[in-house]
Amino acid sequence: MTPRTTSPIPLLAFFALCAPGLAQGTVDLMVTAKMGASVWLLQQTTLTQSIDAQGMMLGSEQALNRVLQFTVKDVDDKGQRLVEARIARVYGSFDLPMGMGTADFDSAAAPAAAGDDEGDGGGMDMSGGMKALLLAGAGKAFTVKVDARGQVVELLDDAKALLKSTPTPALTGRMLGAPTWDEDALKELVVEAFGERPAAPIAVGGSWQRQAPANQAIAPATTRLDLKLAKADAATCEIAITGAIDKLAAATPAAPVDDDADDDSNPQAAAERNIRDTLLMKNGKLTGVCRIARDDGFVAAADSTASIAVEMSAGPWGEVSMSLKSTKKLTRTTADAATPKKAEATKSAGKPATPTTGGGKK
User: Fold this and answer.
1) Strand, coil or helix: what is 315?
2) How far apart are the C-alpha atoms of 187 and 281, rounded to whole Å?
3) Would you call 165 helix, strand, or coil by DSSP?
4) Is 211 left (phi over 0), alpha (psi -120 to 50) or beta?
5) pLDDT in tens, 31-88
6) pTM value?
7) Which of 203, 247, 178, 217 has the alpha carbon at shortest distance from 18?
8) Could you give phi then psi for residue 255, rounded to 5 degrees?
9) CA 68 → CA 62, 95, 294, 333, distances in Å?
10) Closest to 329 (Cα-Cα) out of 305, 307, 296
11) Distances (CA, A) of 131 to 25, 96, 213, 218
């Protein structure tokens, strides 16, 4: 009788299929980044606004790019990581009001000459203030503790100091697209570097939920994320993302300071209070995808699109409706991205816009 031989190939295939993160069984998406591991990421955000102010149609666009570096400084016996986040460079552009042109900004460029942002009472008067808000945090680093599932559990003292030194935009600034830096914003910046991860091992097709701040919203808002492990192999895990954006319930307002007590003496403050009180958010939604690299434990790439409709009463400006759409992309990059190329360094700080009708873009 011919001896029967057993090929090792089927056995190897069986173990491969049963390996964590492959086709069968559950996938454990615990953070695996080791002490000393580091990643450079480029975060590209665009914001498009369409505004209807009593029949006058206005529009604006903003591009905000951040070059970020994340480094694991330590890992404790509970799997928590001490992570340094560095905002190496911030650059982009934004439209000036009333079709008055486009302003560029770059934290890595040479400082502007005195008076460059001082205009004749027009849109350039406010561009300097808007640039300061958009450039907030550039060149700074802060440290956080991250748990084994990629969530920030503590902001260290340098992170709190960064928040104290960062300007907070007024409501009118947020309406123009200025980002808000607070504890949630810093935490979310780090969470995005590790990607979306469930609290426990999960099979492909399994789902979980998470609450996240809606940083591009005009008023305080939150995004209810529905997450699903769509794919998993030895190289990456892909998470599908959908979500709904809702306005947070208003906190009990603080007593007004003396300057705000009389609407006649401070109409700007009165208008902002009226906007906060009457603002409604509708049809807020988000879709996206996140890919986690399994070799180094950081996000490999991510992108999302969010949209929301806003209605408000703007006091003397009457009823205003806005349509906002933002897109965000996160991709791997290198330290070279923190330094502008020659063509970027010589780019004009302001450029004329194409003539428009009706006071702005349609």
Assistant:
1) helix
2) 24
3) helix
4) beta
5) 999 999 999 999 999 999 888 877 777 788 999 999 999 999 999 999 999 999 999 9
6) 0.79
7) 203
8) -65, 135
9) 19, 24, 20, 9
10) 305
11) 50, 11, 23, 18
